[in-house]
Design a protein that fits this description.
It is a single chain. The chain has 23 helices and no strands. About 50% of the residues are buried. It is mostly helical and about 475 residues long.
């Protein structure tokens, strides 16, 4: 199969990530004010609970499937058999997941009180399986993924403003949330015929996938514990309003982290292909990816630490003032997640070192559970934020130790201190904007523009390699356009 340009994949994935950011940026300020912290918390808590059963149904296939399909993507027959085997495992686990979820809803009073909401939210379990997103990522079909995702997000966005009108519309919000994020997966199933046969292949061998899928499932379990357990523990140990406050901080962090990890999502199928067929491109690709992660994460971290209050007020309103401190606490995880995504999913996994990713995530999950249990009763959402911060740091440190020779070599080839210094100096430059007392929207816009200009100028003046490369390409394209 002909490989699509990595640069085009990156652009399409950036558009996809931007749509994932724009959708909540437009919808969340509205629904958070309409539903209030309690309504937002109810849906967020339900989503966190259902995500555990969705994780069970997926069984680690979303990551393993990318690697497995990428390695046989040049052989349609092998690709068909592999995809069908993984889909069948998914569907069999769906039965187990739905049985477990409905049993918990019936037996646990906290869940039974919102039984209808859980039935609605549970649709994501089946839709995620049918979507076979791992197949499209393995084949690097990011144009298709981006277009169909943006269409459904746009429909969901319009419906959100039309149908969510009061604090009683919690069920409608839950339905539209699932529609916007998962409904497009129905089309994935039928569109897959362009790449694989939908007729049952001969000679399925499910057993060959069980061991690696089991390892990836354990990784997913550990990741879900330290990314979703904070909401779940908050829901059981406090109330929906506190979950709503933390959810706002967490959503902002996730949006920023997705911008940093957007390149990594594109890299996994490509580096898996390199490891299976030719290794000379592996180091070059991962080194560039590390440069991009650092160039994006440092300025994002510094800027939003300074403008955390304006960000919360603009997106959610003054009722969410309690989200500011948790947001400031978890913001460093934007850097941690960007690096651990690169070290773990784009380096260790293609190299067959998923057991190290598993160990790091188990360690992070244990740290998160202990800190949540100790800190949430006293500090509530801020305590959950501390647990998440330390857990992500532990995951990153473990993976960096495993890859210490490779990481040390890559860091020697880049001027990471220029990125830090430029970010800090640009932060100092926007402090006068903070002192003006403008409204949140004006303060964020003015601060963002000034920060971006100063940061870019400092990176160019310091001759940071990626900044110089981008500037040179921009000038060449402008010259080409003028001559054209």
């Amino acid at each position: 199969m002909q490989k699509v340009s990595l640069k085009k994949n990156f652009v399409m994935n950036v558009i996809l990530q931007l749509s994932s950011m724009i959708f909540p940026l437009i919808s969340y300020p509205y629904v958070s004010r309409v539903l209030g912290p309690s309504g937002i918390g109810t849906v967020s808590f339900a989503y966190s609970v259902v995500s555990y059963f969705s994780m069970l149904a997926q069984l680690g296939i979303p990551t393993y499937g990318i690697r497995a399909c990428a390695q046989v993507r040049d052989d349609r027959e092998k690709l068909t058999r592999t995809a069908q085997e993984l889909l069948l495992i998914n569907l069999l686990m769906n039965v187990v997941a739905y049985a477990g979820l409905f049993l918990c809803v019936m037996l646990i009073p906290r869940l039974r009180s919102e039984a209808v909401l859980y039935v609605i939210m549970s649709a994501m379990i089946l839709l995620t399986s049918l979507g076979m997103e791992w197949l499209y990522q393995a084949l690097e079909q990011y144009t298709y993924i981006t277009v169909r995702s943006c269409v459904f997000k746009l429909i969901g966005l319009v419906a959100m403003f039309v149908l969510v009108r009061s604090s009683k519309d919690v069920l409608m919000y839950g339905f539209l949330y699932i529609f916007a994020t998962c409904a497009c997966n129905v089309f994935n199933f039928f569109y897959a015929r362009h790449f694989i046969s939908l007729r049952p292949a001969h000679g399925w061998h499910l057993r060959q996938h069980l061991k690696p899928v089991g390892i990836f499932f354990a990784m997913t379990c550990a990741t879900t514990i330290y990314t979703q357990m904070d909401r779940t523990m908050l829901g059981f140990m406090t109330d929906d309003a506190e979950v709503g406050l933390y959810n706002t901080a967490s959503n902002i962090k996730l949006v920023l982290a997705s911008a940093v990890t957007s390149l990594g999502t594109v890299l996994l199928p490509r580096v898996s292909y390199y490891v299976a067929h030719r290794e000379e491109g592996f180091r070059q690709v991962t080194e560039k990816a590390l440069n991009v992660v650092l160039d994006m994460a440092f300025p994002i971290l510094v800027f939003f630490l300074l403008f955390a209050d304006d960000t919360v007020y603009l997106l959610s309103g003054s009722a969410y003032e309690g989200s500011i401190r948790p947001l400031q606490i978890v913001l460093p995880t934007v850097l941690f997640i960007g690096l651990s995504n690169l070290f773990g999913m784009e380096m260790l996994v293609p190299m067959g070192g998923e057991k190290h990713v598993l160990y790091s995530e188990i360690l992070g999950a244990l740290v998160n559970l202990v800190l949540n249990a100790l800190l949430i009763p006293k500090y509530q959402s801020s305590g959950a934020a501390v647990g998440t911060l330390v857990a992500e740091a532990v995951v990153l440190l473990y993976q960096a130790m495993v890859l210490r020779s490779q990481v040390g070599s890559m860091l020697l080839h880049m001027s990471w201190w220029k990125m830090i210094l430029s970010s800090v100096l640009a932060g100092a430059a926007v402090l006068p904007v903070r002192a003006q007392g403008w409204n949140s929207a004006l303060s964020l816009i003015a601060g963002f523009l000034l920060y971006g200009i100063v940061f870019a100028a400092l990176m160019l003046l310091s001759r940071e390699s990626l900044a110089v490369q981008l500037w040179t390409q921009l000038r060449e394209r402008r010259k080409g356009a003028d001559h054209g």
